[in-house]
Amino acid sequence: MNLAVIGSGYVGLVTGACFAEFGVKVTCVDKDAAKIEALERGEVPIYEPGLDALIERNVKQGRLSFTTEFADAVQNALVVMIAVGTPAREDGGTDLTYVDAVAREIGQCINGYKVVVTKSTVPVGTSYRVRDLVLEELASRNEEVEFSVASNPEFLREGAAIGDFMRPDRVVIGADDDVAAAIMKDLYRPLYLNETPFVETNIASSELTKYAANAFLATKISFINEVSNLCEKIGGDVQAIARGIGLDGRIGKKFLHAGPGFGGSCFPKDTRSAAHFAREIGETFQIVEAVIDVNDRQRLRMVDKIEKAVGGSLSGKTVAMLGLSFKPETDDMRDAPSIEIVAGLLDRGANVRAFDPVAMDEAAKIMPDITCCKDAYECCENADAAVLVTEWNQFRMLDLERLRKLLRRPVMVDLRNVYEPRNMERNGFEYTSVGR
Prior knowledge:
With 436 residues, the chain is of the alpha/beta class. It contains 18 helices and 14 strands.
């Protein structure tokens, strides 16, 4: 089976490389000629553990290729996956400009039966929108070509995307005809034979499943952050509470980690898009609206927490930020909590030094007023406080004695609850965490 993946960003590259690993012949398409040329040289534009080796292996074995030639890739494929960006609009809705452009281009070159699949996270109704745009282009050509549309949302976690694709919790396939459903199941046959759960449903349900999943996970994060705020008032321990409720099988222990709130390319955008979609159809997604509000406030609470830790005023103080990416094992800075925290610190007169293992280049573009450092220890030298923002593994076993001597004051604000309060106090730190 031949597969064309339109869009060579995060989702497109991981999807294309993993299907190639299954033995499918995959062509990844992108209009950015420089990106395609870099990929052909073996240069992967994103940081994702294991992806560069996966791409290299499948290119060498002839199953994976990259091109700017849209029509050739589509015409030679049975399945065409749309994996282009779907950025957020200012009103919280989803900008479908790139999806629309791809749909029209498919309509201009389609030459036989295809299954056109929306892989990008899109609002309910987008697959039918794609169908209608393809039909419009076919009508302008005075041609009739049979094709199907389908929805196949991705559930990839940055930093663990390859494992998520190869060993998924489930595969969701939304299709309104048996032929498209059968082709999609055949595409995923290696997983089907390994007894991966498959959810086969209609297109609208499939599209909404992705939003429902991300909204629910974001709800768990905002919920435990609200609990952490209560703990700080009463002297409670949010980690003990998270364990106490997480061991209940109906709740589950994942996504119950208090911190500075969720970020990244999915949760912030998808919660706002879900809320916007609900309003558009005359409903109010009240829980999700509250989740968004809690998350926004949580980031500002972190600035207050840092200010209090350095004595009540940030003016003229130097703050060392350890970690900037929205989560470990990625260089993704999209909607990272660190962005708002740094902005808040700068607004209150602080100087900000920062180090992140892989996100420094991207962070420097977004936050030009920070001082970029080569490692955690250089970052903390003569700082008034060390702030642990992203729980990279290398920050979990810092040399505390060295750190204490480097800091102007032995202050650590741990926004990820990596360290134990009593141990930090024994090591001479004025230690602040979240909900403990």
